[in-house]
Amino acid sequence: MNDALLGSIISAMSTGLGAVPILFMRKISHLLRDILLAYAAGIMTSASVYNLIPEALGQSNLFVLAFGIMLGSLVLLVLEMRIPHVDLENPEKMPFKIEGKAFMIIAAITMHNLPEGLSVGVSYASTDENLGNLIAFSIGLQNAPEGFLVALFLVNQNIGRFKALGIATLTGAVEIITAMIGYTLSSLVAGLVPYGLAFAAGAMMFIVYKELIPESHGDGNARAATISFLFGLITMIGLTELF
């Protein structure tokens, strides 16, 4: 429990850590943004394919794996359909005005973080002692650029830098709660861990394919983003071999 709590805190607070540069700068180049997003995509892909999926399959069977992956993807799909997509760089394209419904933006970002926290908690409940740390690390790397983009958007909406930093940090803090829920359920309910691991893999791959890869390839930086993705993939594989 203590390891799961610590890992979830570090992973969640990476959102706030990633937002710290907003105190010193107001914008970021498209190239750097795309490289960061693609690197995070490579990390999460590797974590899913080489860690979560083999662990889930080793503890169960193909049916459990397929069910969990599709369920994780379905949950993210429903969230994507029900919660308005927030274009952090182009607020004029939003389906609602920021002045009257700022809380909806924060809620949307927060809701998208829920499955990530669940992934961390379930991973710590696995029999693989290193899996929780690896997944927490991969989620943390994905949270960092997300935290910066959230804070950048808020600053551009005339919200103070320190307040924007605080709000960005809070959007990630919800992962601590869902991580504890995932860990507790997986620890108490026999046979739930492989379903949870497969669910986490499905949710993470949905985020990679639906959000991170398209976002990193939309501004003419596809080549740099592809190389960055491969570096992220290799980084996570290297960490798996080391630990």
TrEMBL record:
Residue intervals passing through the bilayer: 6-24, 36-53, 59-81, 102-122, 134-155, 162-183, 189-209, 221-240
Membrane topology: Multi-pass membrane protein
Subcellular location: Cell membrane
Primary localization class, coarse: membrane
Keyword set, alphabetical order: Cell membrane, Membrane, Transmembrane, Transmembrane helix, Zinc
InterPro entries: ZIP
Family listed: Belongs to the ZIP transporter (TC 2.A.5) family.
Protein name: ZIP family metal transporter
